[in-house]
Amino acid sequence: MTQVDPAKDGAEMSFEGRMSYGDYLGIDAILGAQHPRGDAHDEMLFIIQHQTSELWMRLALHELDAARVCIAQGRAREAFKMLTRIARIFEQLNSAWDVLRTMTPSEYTRFRDDLGQSSGFQSHQYRLIEFAVGNRNRAMMQPHAHRADYTERLEAELARPSLYDEALRHLHRAGLPVPEDVITRDLTQPWAAHDGVQAVWEIVYRDPETHWEAYELAEKLVDFEDYFRRWRFNHVTTVERIIGFKRGTGGTSGVQYLRKMLEVELFPELWHLRTSL
Ligand code: HEM
Ligand SMILES: N[C@@H](CC(=O)c1ccccc1NC=O)C(=O)O
């Protein structure tokens, strides 16, 4: 059996006083952040599943911020890359459900009581993503009232144009007939389907060659919403499989609440136009 000596190949073997892999990545902080409350075997899976989701959400927010800046500065093509990456992140989050699904109701019951009233419903990053893409609901701020830092970030997000607002402003600047009330709307309000906006997207979809950039932007948005819907669907199906119709630890009706959320449309006109094309 040949044994490789990486040092002979030039591998650095001494990190006394030098930045190593773990130093750069903050590995000790990450690996020191799993604190199961009990001794149920599956609690570690549950914790890591959520922590990795939060890390991916962190990246999604980073990309969403950059994508909006690019679109606002008229560099929509640069934003396409970020939007593709965001869709891929959600694809990754969707695959992750396959790991969690290996947990049965019997196994989850062993530690569910230890969760108290904590719930994914209180994920501030998830709420930031929803606000960033346009699903804005001030009521969702309440569970964060005890954290001034989260509240401040969520408020700032509500005051900022959403990804969809930026897309529509971009079309407006490009000379497409986006109604003025869309550009001057109260940003803190959730987006509501608008006939005038659908009419604009219809112009784009009826003649993609003339409006190629707007057409590509639209398809990137649809792609993102497609993956996001799948995330919601995977969540509610996993929840039903594991806790049935029990109330959620966060206090909602559980599966019934999550099913209602499946009806949310982020970019309604982009879906509705398909019927009228
Ligand atoms: C055993 C697995 C899981 C169960 C049983 C479960 C259950 C639930 C329930 C019942 C709710 C409704 C709120 C409540 O009353 O608690 C909820 C919300 C939520 N969960 Fe989970 N969940 C699971 C895994 C996950 C994972 C892995 C994530 C990823 C971060 C997640 C993120 C969320 C989010 C973001 C919400 C809020 C959804 C919204 O308001 O639209 N959950 N979950
Ligand atoms: N809401 C879940 C508990 C739960 O899943 C959860 C608990 C703490 C932290 C994150 C969670 N994930 C998603 O809601 C339940 O009712 O069983």
Automatic annotation (TrEMBL):
Q: In which pathway does it act?
A: Amino-acid degradation; L-tryptophan degradation via kynurenine pathway; L-kynurenine from L-tryptophan: step 1/2
Whether Iron counts among this entry's keywords is yes
Keywords assigned: Dioxygenase, Heme, Iron, Metal-binding, Oxidoreductase, Tryptophan catabolism
Q: Name one GO molecular function term.
A: L-tryptophan 2,3-dioxygenase activity
Q: In the record, which residues are listed under signal peptide?
A: none
The keyword Oxidoreductase appears for this protein: yes
Q: Name one GO biological process term.
A: L-tryptophan catabolic process to acetyl-CoA
E.C. code? 1.13.11.11
Name of the top EC class for this enzyme: oxidoreductase
Name the job this protein performs.
Answer: Heme-dependent dioxygenase that catalyzes the oxidative cleavage of the L-tryptophan (L-Trp) pyrrole ring and converts L-tryptophan to N-formyl-L-kynurenine. Catalyzes the oxidative cleavage of the indole moiety.
The record's family statement is: Belongs to the tryptophan 2,3-dioxygenase family.
Task: Describe its partners and assembly state.
Answer: Homotetramer.
Protein name as catalogued = Tryptophan 2,3-dioxygenase
Species per Swiss-Prot/TrEMBL record = Pseudorhodobacter turbinis
Please name the taxonomic classification of the source: Bacteria, Pseudomonadati, Pseudomonadota, Alphaproteobacteria, Rhodobacterales
Gene transcribed to yield this protein: kynA
